Amino acid sequence: MITIHDKNFVPYISETEIKEKVKKIARQISDDYRGLKPLFVAILNGAFMFASDLFKELDIEAEIAFIKLASYKGTTSTGKVLTAIGLDADIHNRHVVIIEDIVDTGKTLHTFLPTLEHSQPKSLKLVTLLHKPEATVHPIAIDYLCFIIPNKFVVGYGLDYDGLGRNLKEIYQLEG
Ligand code: XMP
Ligand code: MG
Fold first, then answer.
1. Which residues is 145 bridged to in the sheet?
2. Could you tell me whether strands 171-174 and 154-155 are parallel, antiparallel, or unpaired per DSSP bridges?
3. pTM for this one?
4. How many Cα neighbours within 13 Å face the side chain of 48?
5. Catalytic annotation present for 104
6. What are the chain's domains?
7. Predicted pLDDT of residue 69
8. Which residue has the higher pLDDT, 137 or 78?
9. Which of 13, 85, 102, 115 supports an S-S bond with 68, CB 3.0-4.6 Å?
């Protein structure tokens, strides 16, 4: 068990499980996008580690760009989605793959996807490390999913609890 700020977390998904799943998803994406020079758009901050590991495992020509959105404070969503750093890449006519850390209520992507669609990419798909189906408020189509998890707060592998825990190599779940 570990303690971050005032809360206890227990190990939930191991480093080995994450690595295996990331490789598997990267193989699928490589097969689906070979020759299409996709543009990956990773959503900061949470997806940085997943995006990095996934991108390294791709064996196709591909580009990556980053955007910073934020809707979380503490362990519950504030409901407001802010764009803190915008996208510098032109997605018009590109095959775009969004990289998210977690789809929780779906609010973030529900707000953000129409903005991207407005720029008329050739295709738009989503890969996410985690998904909490029980928390869904806005249903989001997920094209590539690593792990389905229950509606409990998690940290590690890029995900944080008020700034801490991102550097953990495995994913931890809120105790209790
Ligand atoms: P929504 O509700 O918009 O949430 O789908 C997406 C964003 O909320 C953050 N999030 C979490 N972060 N542990 C975290 O560290 C969690 O359990 C969790 N659930 C949601 C995350 O940044 C995601 O992009
Ligand atoms: Mg995030």
1. 128
2. antiparallel
3. 0.94
4. 13
5. yes
6. 16-149 (3.40.50.2020)
7. 81
8. 137
9. 85
Residues, beta carbon < 5 Å, ion ligand 2:
46, 101
Question: Would you state the structure tokens that stand for residue 17, as one six-digit string?
Answer: 């499980």
Which of the listed residues 4, 12, 104, 110 should we mutate to test ligand 1's pocket, taking the one with most ligand atoms within 8 A of CB? 104
Among residues 59, 101, 104, 160, the one annotated as catalytic is: 104
- Residues 22-46 have pLDDT tens digits of 999 999 999 999 999 999 999 999 9
C-beta 121 within 6 A of ligand 1: no
The CA 103 to ligand 1 mean position distance, Å, reads: 6
